Structures are given as C-alpha cells and as structure tokens.
Amino acid sequence: MTGSTVVCAGLTTLDVAHLVDGVPPANRKVASHDFFVAAGGPATNAAVAAARLGGSARLVTALPSHPLSDLVAADLAGCGVDLVVADASPTGPPLTAAIMVTRATGERAVVSPTGAAVTVPGTPAGLDPAALLDDAGAVLIDGYHRHLSLPLAHAARERGIPVVLDAGSHKQYTAALLAVTDVAVVSDDFAFPEAGSDPYATLARLLELGARAAVISRGGDPLLVTTGGPVREVPVAPVDVVDTLGAGDVLHGALAHRLASRGYDAARLPEDLAWASRVVAVSLRSFGTRAWLAEPLPS
Q1: Separation between Cα atoms, residue 225 and residue 231, nearest integer Å
Q2: SS3 of 96, please?
Q3: What pLDDT was estimated at residue 74?
Q4: How far apart are CA 216 and CA 94, in angstroms?
C-alpha cells in the first residue's frame, strides 16, 4: 500500500547565489544586490517544493561529513524535508554551486562540480529501498547519484509507485533511468545524440526507452506532453520573472507531489502539469529558492 510521501533521490549541493546586474567579464568585480546560501540540487529543490505543498518529503542523497554539510542539513530541516544520507563519501566539503542571477532577466549562470555525482561507487551496503519507500506515494530521481536512485526506482516500479525522472542533460546511463520511469520530464535543452534538437523526436525517444509519459518544459512556452498518442500542449501562465533558478526543480517536485496525492492517471497528466506550472509561477516571482515558500500557493 502506498502513502503520500514524495521520495526524492539525487544531488545535493550547497548553493551560494548573488543577484547581479550582469555576469562580470574576466578580472572584474561586481557588487551584488542580494545573495543567499541554501541547499540546492535538482532532487533537493524538488523535495523542498513537495514539502511546501503540504505533503511529506524525503531526500535520499550523498553528503560528506563536513561542517558545510551541517548547514545543508539545517536548511532542509527548516524546510520540512526528511534528509537521509545514504552515502557519506567522499571526504571534504559538499559539492558547492556558485550562481549569478541577472537582475533584469532572472536568468542564471551556474558553476558546479556535478560531474562528481555522475561517476559514483557501487550501491551502499546499507541502502534499504523497501524501508525508504514504506510510506511513498511517488519517487523523483534526478539523474545524479544513480547508485542511490536506480535501486529506489526499481523498487518503486515493483510496488506500483510512480517514478518521475528529471532527466537533466543526456548521460551515458539515461536509458537505464528511463527503463524505470513513469513520467520523464526534460527541458527544451535536452537532446539525445541520435535525435538532435527536434522536440517531437525527443518525446518519441523518451517513450521508446521506457517512460510511460514524456514531457518537455519550454520556459514561458506551453509544455509538450504525450503518453504515446498525439502530443498535447499545456499552456503556462505569463509571469514577471525575477529568478529562474530552480524553476524546473519546482515543476518536478510539484508534479511528484500531485502524483503522490492523487496517483498517476495518463488522462489527467495535462491537468496535473498545469497545476504544477502554476506553482512554478509563484517561485519565479522572487529571488532565490526559499523566498517563494512564504507566498500563497494555487489551490
């Protein structure tokens, strides 16, 4: 029997972000208008979103033992996220992202060593997917730390728990992730080497590799969604954008929350995506990945 908890598995970083007039050229310094420090990463931001939406959220991740990891843990506890550190390696500080958000457009520039979360050791001996999924209504994986996310996704599929994949960029193991995915969500920057930049070819390939449903987010343009039939467009509401950082993560977390609350229904998926996009609109109106949590949310 499933519950209503969203279990997110994947990357956790420490984000340090500044709001600037523009990204400085080489050998120049600029003063920022605002800054924040918070836990980040696709699965992490998705878990924060799911927790804010009134559900229970659990984050399964890798995080080393380090004073900066304590900051990450404290931030997530304040957001109501149950943190499970399933892998305490490597030594040293947690992966850290340096971010600049352009004030006029809300666009962000990010530098982070995420490659370290792609090349990973084997599955930790103590990982117990059954226990982690005991009260789960949906699972979200982000393509990082696959030594954690793949066992959880396999176990979820065996139990009939829907799995959402935030595919990020194409990786050599993307096919393995799609084989255990119910709803694959990619941005319009995502491309298979063999499919090029054609979004319809991308959607078809996502389904061919195992996803039951495929979605492409396109910023302010309508989402594209298919479950094997015609491709449908799901409009997104216009919004005055302050910061796009984490917007995709919020979409994935909101969708996972919706599936955990209501179950997966192919016919209802466009409606669920439309609701998730309205949550994203709230997050776009403020700087950073935490200020929006205090704002009213769509019903």
Answers
A1: 6
A2: strand
A3: 98
A4: 30
Tokens of 223: 């989402």
CA distance 58 to 223: 27
Helices (H), the chain: 42-52, 67-78, 129-132, 146-158, 174-178, 199-208, 247-262, 269-284
Cβ–Cβ < 8 Å for 260, 178 = no
Nearest to 263 by CA among 138, 156, 132, 179: 138
Domain 5-11+42-94+122-294 has CATH 3.40.1190.20: yes
Tens digits of residue pLDDT in 38-92: 999 999 999 999 999 998 999 999 999 999 999 999 999 999 999 999 999 878 9
**Residue 1's pLDDT band (cuts 50, 70, 90):** very low
pLDDT of residue 3: 81
Rounded alpha-carbon distances, angstroms, from residue 120 to 111, 123, 142, 145, 153: 20, 9, 14, 7, 17
